Amino acid sequence: MLNRLTDSLNFQTEALKLRSERQRLIASNIANADTPGYVSRDFDFATALKTATGQASTGPSGLSAPKLAMNAANPAHLQRNGQLAGSGATTDLAYAPTTQSNLDNNTVDMDRERANFADNTVRYEATLRFINSSMRTLNTAITGQ
To answer: What pTM value is reported for the model?
Structure first.
């Protein structure tokens, strides 16, 4: 029973980390919309989540997951499944698909980036609400109220 609760929360935690990383990438793309030669970056969230949660046995296809790793200064740092706590997917980011060409070789499509930003924000909030709801339910079950 406890494993199911832990697995569910670990899944949501990984999703939250990846949503946060994707939001940072999209914000970086938007900030560099006027930078000549800037190439927008992104990753496939579903593939990254499968990789981060250990559900993918093969390498990702297409866009890949971000590097999410924790630097360990002490070998006694907490471990999870034989890996450092906080460690996740270790593949490189991919370039976002180019939909339009600019004279300055900038590949940022502001319409796509704004849509991705709004979509990722809504999904980030939904993940937070799910975690809060799970914690509230667990607290209610523990206290018996």
So the answer is: 0.69
Q: Classify strands 41-42 and 94-95 as parallel, antiparallel or unpaired.
A: antiparallel
Phi, psi torsion values for 128, nearest 5 degrees: -60, -45
Phi first, then psi, for residue 78 (nearest 5°) are: -55, 140
Among candidate residues 1, 19, 52, the one with its CA nearest the CA of residue 131: 19
Strand, helix or coil for residue 108: coil
Written as one string, the DSSP assignment of 46-88 is HHHHHHHTT---S---SS-PPP-----SSTTS-EETTEETT--
Exposed (0-12), middle (13-18) or buried (19+): which is 142, by Cβ within 10 Å? exposed
Residue 34 vs residues 25, 96, 106: alpha-carbon distances, Å: 16, 16, 7
Q: How far apart are CA 135 and CA 6, in angstroms?
A: 11
The closest alpha carbon to 95, from 27, 38, 18, 24, belongs to 38
For residue 120, give its domain range: 2-143
- Helix/strand/coil percentages in the chain, nearest 5: 50, 5, 45
Q: What is the pLDDT of residues 88-131, one digit of tens each?
A: 444 447 877 777 777 888 889 999 999 999 999 999 999 999 99
Split into its structural domains, the chain has a count of 1
